[in-house]
Amino acid sequence: MKSYRRFLAELKRRRVFKVAAVYGAVGYGVLQLSDILVPALDLPDSVTRGIALIVVLAFPIAIVLAWAFEVTPEGVRRTEAAPIEEVRRIASEPRRRRWPIGIAALVATALLAWGAWWTLRPDASASLADGADGAELDDAVLTVLPFAVEGSPDVQYLGDGIVSLLSTKLDGAGNLRSVDSRSVLRLASREGYAPGDPESARRIATFFGSGLYVAGDIVEASGRMQVSAELRRVTGERIAEASVERPSDEVFDIVDELTGHLLSGLRGGPAARVQRIAAVTTSSLPALKAFLEGEDHFRAGQFTEGMESFRRATEEDSLFALAYYRLSLAAEWSFADRTSVEAAQTAARLSHRLSERDRRVLEAYHLRRLGQNQEAAVRYRSILGTYPDEMEAWLDLSEILFHAGPLHGDPFTSANETLRRVIEFDPQHATALIHLARIAAYEGNIARVDSLTGKFLGLNPEVGRHLEMSAVRAIGMQDSAALAVLKERLPTADEPGLGIAAWSAGVFAGDLEIARLADESLARPGRSPEARRLGYAQLAHLAVAEGRHQDERAAIEALSALSRGTGLEYEAMLALLPFRDTPAEELRRLRSELLGLDPSSIETSDNPSELFTVHDGLHPFIRYYLLGLLSAQLGMEEPAGAYADSLDALPARPTDGSLPQDLALAVRAEQLRVSGRLEAALQTLKAQSRNTWYTQTAASPLFSRVRERYIQAELLIELGRPDEARRWLETIDQLSVFDIPYREPAQQRLASIGTSDADAENQPSQAEAASTT
Question: Which one, of 370, 372, 368, 357, lies nearest residue 398 by Cα?
């Protein structure tokens, strides 16, 4: 028999394993009990350490005694060596009989060792004098200190109990983390902390690296309890104070209400006003904590995670208006447009639960979400006139100026100043950084691109937005290494990320190669049908912009193979580009094919993003619009008018904005223009409301009204008003990849009207020349 097996058999025979198992388990229990009772009995911390030392030092003694002695009916006697046959019998037992007691001894010994280390570890006995002043403080870490208590003995337990209750409630609210309550109580007991002593409170909080601490008092009388608390920075600055009075048996309700009040003051400044309002407009602490968590995700550009947090807040409190508002915003940035619309509608329905100020902000947002940008802008400017520090109004006004400005001839760069106001309130606001980076790239400001994209990427945003800003950064700084890395990322990027990257690269950063590579990745086999359709449609338009007519034809053919109806629609749109001289026979062919097209046969998708489904449900409108334009181009005035009337008669959805009416006006304007009634055509185009949501303008040449904006500029030039035309030409390519084919023709027209105002006034327009002739 091997010597180690003989030794193990001897340990079992002498019951050493059994003693180790029992002693280890009991010793661990004693350590845990002392860790709880010593602070509760207000005993010095040295008592806990003394007990731990006794338990640990006694363990080897117990083992030695178990080896050396045994208890018999005659009394305790020294253990004698066993006959070899008995040892062999024990060693030859099946494993199922030999192993359990050994494993139990090993586990119990490990527990005892861990418990002893935790109690005797070096920092367990540290004091406030052990270098606490050198600790690095963090405003996301909070220490709750014991409260002073006045009243009956029945509530004295809350002096220390409030530490555990409040620490648990405050922990995880946004990025807030509470210091372990047992560690706080242990240190407070060891140091003789007197509740109400601000210097002692500051030193304890500093010891744990907390930038914040909560202290307070509890007063009980006649069955009622008043709990008051202050939230302070260790510098002494008071951030929030709260006082709650309730019957003494409603302790948990008191703690919940107290937590809400403290959190409402935790986030200061205009940037956090919505968060403070949220804290007092929900009665559910879990809802508030989920809301604050969502706010932190949203600010960091983690929009999908933010959406899920806000959704959880609405599930915890179904009447939480501000949570629905933020859910709508986060869903918008997560490309979940249906969720965004539904949440905005619910928020508007619950807005009566808010103050007048917050109700006005929410109602203005609802108008913007429905595409009523100009009316929403008026509302936001009115709000800012009364409340100039309302960051949400500045942010949403920026969104309107950025995304809807070009619809009305105003450059998206006009949002620069309002976005700067947002950054003044919150320098790390992700959405403001994204917009400012796009503007910097468009203007060729390399230093700003570097600063803004670097700051945004440092927030650890979600993958899709990281891809977009990486593209803007690489293109804007002309970083060849970064561009190479970007190109390697595109083939495996997700579909929304590719769609937004193609948009930013082509429209804002002006790099058609990156836009084309992103669209090629969208269009490749293996992608969803709706993503491939968008990819091929944009590839066709990029080919037009670069004069690659064979590639244009190939993209349309590939699109038609995926969806005959969609391919026909885009083929007709490209044939109707106002700077193209498409033969009449081609126009007649397209008209004939559209007449035979059943709009209901065109594929739809359940994709939640309008980036890919923008035309779903609109194909009857698109068919009438294209037939109307083709009829007008072919001189078929009566059919063109009939198609415009049909557009007016079709039922529209609220989410379509003013598109159906605007398409009808576009057809009528085309009739007038082709027949030479230029002023009437111009006035008809001016009657378009152009109400639309920005995802729609980014994903569709119809929603971006690019053809109508270009023709409006042409009409102004024809009517001798080049200065008015200039603003339309300068903003023609600022909404969509589908606008890019207009970039070069617009530049050429701008060059042709680049004469002085005096020269322009002396030169008769073509309309005047035709009238004279």
Answer: 368
Q: Which residue has the higher pLDDT, 33 or 346?
A: 346
What φ, ψ does residue 410 adopt, rounded to 5°?
Answer: -110, 135
Which tokens sit at 6? 């003989």
Q: CB-based contacts of 106: which residues, under 8 Å, 6+ apart?
A: none
**Dihedral over alpha carbons 663, 664, 668, 673 (to 10 degrees):** 0
Residue 451 to residue 330: CA distance in whole angstroms:
25
Closest Cα to residue 401, out of 393, 361, 713, 609?
Answer: 393
- Whether residue 171 contacts residue 177, with contact meaning beta carbons closer than 8 Å, is answered with yes
Convert the pLDDT of each residue in 699-737 to its tens digit.
999 999 999 999 999 999 999 999 999 999 999 999 999
Kindly report, residue by residue over 119-176, the tens digit of the pLDDT: 666 555 555 554 444 446 788 899 999 999 998 888 887 888 888 888 888 887 777 8
Whats the size of the chain, residue-wise?
A: 773
Note every long-range contact of 585-593, with CB atoms under 8 Å and residues 24 or more positions apart, other chains counting. Answer: 587/630, 587/633, 587/634, 588/634, 590/626, 590/630, 591/627, 591/630, 591/631, 591/634, 593/568
Q: Is 678 left (phi over 0), alpha (psi -120 to 50) or beta?
A: alpha
Beta strands in 98-237 (DSSP E): 138-144, 148-150, 177-178, 210-221, 224-233
The CA–CA distances, whole Å, from 451 to 299, 437, 455 equal 17, 9, 6
pTM above 0.70, yes or no: yes
The answer to whether the CB of 256 falls within 8 A of the CB of 285 is yes
Q: Nearest-CA neighbor of 726 among 701, 754, 745?
A: 754
Interval 447-487: pLDDT, tens: 999 999 999 999 999 999 999 999 999 999 999 999 999 99
Per-residue tokens: 49: 């350490």
Q: Give 76's DSSP letter.
A: E
**pLDDT tens digit sequence for 244-286:** 898 988 888 888 888 887 876 666 555 667 766 776 678 787 8
Whether 25 contacts 11, CB under 8 Å: no
- Determine phi and psi for 705, rounding to 5 degrees: 50, 35
Q: Are 493 and 517 in contact (CB under 8 A)?
A: no
Q: At what angle do helices 619-633 and 659-674 cross, to 10 degrees?
A: 10
Mean pLDDT of 527-547: 98
Note the Cα 546 to chain centre separation in Å. 36
Measured between alpha carbons, how far is 108 from 16 in angstroms, rounded to an integer? 13
Tell me what the mean pLDDT of segment 587-611 comes to.
95
Binned at pLDDT 50, 70 and 90, residue 610 comes out as very high
Contacts of 565 (CB under 8 A, 6+ apart): 597, 598, 599, 601, 602, 603, 619
| CA–CA dist 83, 368 (Å, integer) | 93
Structure tokens at 25: 């388990």
